[in-house]
Predict the 3D structure of the following.
Amino acid sequence: MTVKHLWERLLEAKSRLEPVQSKYRVLFEDPATPDEPAKVLVPDPNWMACALEGNILPPIETYQRDRLVPDGEPKEHPYAEPIGPMTEEEAIEYLIMKDIDPSIWRDYKGNRVIMKIVPVELIPSDRSFRNAWKVKQEAEMEIAA
Amino acid sequence: MSTLNVSNITDGTDTVETGYVLNGSAKAWINFADTSTATINNSLNMSSITDHASGQYSPYFTNSFNDHHYAAVGNAEQGSGDRSFEIRTTATNYYDMWLSVGTAISDNVINDASSTVTGDLA
């Protein structure tokens, strides 16, 4: 059976699924640029709805292989057989492997904690000092940065 | 879902090839706010947005583009005025958008930001 192109599946899903705002954020630092503030990855609610629904998104391995495909060459992920439904936690892990460089979540071997998956409530709500945010090293439960 | 398979579209006077309509349609767009914590309000073909620092964001595509030669634009309501985003980097799976400010900003709040992308999908 021919698999529909991923963009067509996304269009169809957007007309049918209610967006799901994630209760998680991923707070991370890039060890290659230690002077930069911590970054916050925000999941897209329409994407999260697709992840929870299943049979829309391609396997994460297709994105990882496509990272190495040169510009203009055919990519695997738009045509790959979609995977089944995920839990929200599995979806966040998928998103980390898709949208964060492997040097942060896979290859880093230092002692500093450079990535945390946190509830959105632990992200500071006051942006006055946004450019000074760093990942809290302690197992702090009140604020993450 | 059914499919309408036509090569041309007309309003009775002007005719255009369907390819022009498909190629000119936005393949990805995003609307978000960053008043306290960043929140995506609505989108198409986006999996996430990364908040790097004050006024610096990277939207990530679910379906990548064929190459990095696509057209991305963005603007935002920030502070007391409207700003545009500078598109700093384009890659097949994401792009970097930095808030362009003519004078120093007094806060780091984005009330309403949007960006749209046209180009060739992978």
